[in-house]
Amino acid sequence: MSRQALASCGDLSAPQEADTICKRIYMLLERILDANDYTIVQEEIIDLANELMSETKTYDILFLYLYESLMSLNYAKALQVGKLLLQHEAVLHAIATEKYATGATLN
Prior knowledge:
Oligomer: single chain
Strand content: under 5%
Helix content: 55-70%
Structural class: mainly alpha
Low-confidence stretches: 1-10
Number of domains: 1
Radius of gyration: 15 Å
Number of strands: 0
Shape: elongated
């Protein structure tokens, strides 16, 4: 499946839009899909995943799914996992924003 076929799912279109780790990973996954080769950005994804997981472990299962998708060369599925990363990031941001607005702490 090509990136064009997935375009209706809201792909990021410009690097400056990738202002979070999950968005950067998603853009790298788009590059993988276009090139049909995960090795071109493998190290970048690993570095970004490690950086993110050093902050919160809530992404662990998604990175497991991402790894499995990349190792099976299913790049369309990897891009779908990337969308899940973006959704999870949005949920965490909403929770943090709500807690901040109410003065609660994130323990």
